[in-house]
Structure formats: C-alpha cells, structure tokens
Amino acid sequence: MASNPPGDCCATGFRHEGTPAGEIKDIDGVKTYISYPKEKTDKAVFVVSDIFGIFINGQLVADEFAKAGYLAVLPDLFQGDQIKLEDQAAGKVNLPVWLKDHQPSHVDPVIASTIKYLREEQGIKRIAGAGYCFGAKYTARFLKEGQLDVGYMATPSFVTEEELAAIGGPLSISAAQTDHIFTTELRHKSEDILIKNGQSWQINLYGGVSHGFAIRTDLSIKHNKFAKEQAFYQAVAWFNQYL
C-alpha cells in the first residue's frame, strides 16, 4: 500500500474554534457544507473529509478555501454516521468495525454525485480535491479526467499503490514526521510511484508534527499552528498553479 489503513491516530485530534461562514444544503440526499467566495468562479475545491465528516475543523478549512477564491464543498461522506469527537474522547470508537460500513462502495457514490452537482448545477469547470486522512484515498480514486482535475492530500491513509499509480492529474501531499499511517518507507515508495506515473507532484514533509496535523492539530502549540497553516498554503499554491 502507498499508505496504511486508518489507525487510532486517525480518531484523535483537537476541535478548533470559529464560526462557519457557509451553509448546509441537501445535494441529492447528501448533507453538504458549501462555502462561497466573494466573486463568482468556475473553480471549486472539494474538501474530502477525514472520519469526522462535517464538523467545525473541516468547515473552517472549507471557508479558507473560499477566501482563497474557490467555491468550497464538504459533503457528508458517511450519511450521518461520522465519528464524533466526544465518542472518540470517551473511548467509544471501534474504528475497524466502523470502517466496514464506509468502504468505496459506500463513499464513491457520494463523491460522484458531488462532482456532478458542481459541474452541472454550479457550472464549475475545474475541481480540486483536498483529501484529509481518510479522504486522501478518494482524492486518488477520483483524480481522473472529467472528475477531479487536481489533487492534494494531507497525511493520507488507506491509499493503495494501484490507486496512487492511476492518478490522472497533478498531486501534492503534506506529510508528517511522525506518522504510523504514511510512514517514511511508504512515503519513499509513493515518491517512486509518482515518478513513474509522470504527473506533476510534490511531497512536503513537516517536522515535529504527527498524523492529522493539517486538520486536527492542537493550535495552542505555536509550531503546530504554523505547520497547519503552511500545509494549507501548500494546497492553495498547488491549486493556484494547476487549477
């Protein structure tokens, strides 16, 4: 595998503070958070969430992409069955059992319907996928002509070598120094795969942080906050270049 399956570190993190600026809409039966840029655009960022789905951290990230000039969407990949932070904190999360009900056969249709909505209802011509942890797998799966045009992953999990080798567009990855999911060995293997693939790519390694830092880090720690912000800037710079 290009990255290991999700583990306990995927179900840990810190809730961020802020007030979401977007709105919740029902898109073909899927609860979807949408954040709008100041000016009309034909470019969008599809925020492909971690296992916490639509929650404050992801919403605030979507808002930042909207501030950068993109229409940002964050659909509920789990149809109301996302992991809750309070359950994680109370030790109620059984990730292997939960994952059985959230396989590609469950998630792929949500991704496909959201892309269709963006292109047919919103008039979007170019779509970037920003996959965080769990969502990285689906960024890779849908980084194909007519689906996602550009990809970004932060501390990817559950991405197979075959999925990574089959991407059809530019891909940027934010990696953490301490990551049992996207290990040093798997990061180097991913580099080899991307070189052979021939698409434009980059992998930036952030020291002193761990898996999930780009979406769930403790912002009270100055270095963590800096790394999270830099990973976001990495994504925006990549989208500005290739989208």
TrEMBL record:
InterPro entries: AB_hydrolase_fold, Dienelactn_hydro
Annotated Pfam families: DLH
Domain Dienelactone hydrolase, chain residue ranges per copy: 31-243
Protein name: Dienelactone hydrolase domain-containing protein
PANTHER family given in the database record: DIENELACTONE HYDROLASE (PTHR17630), PROTEIN AIM2 (PTHR17630:SF44)
A molecular function GO annotation: hydrolase activity
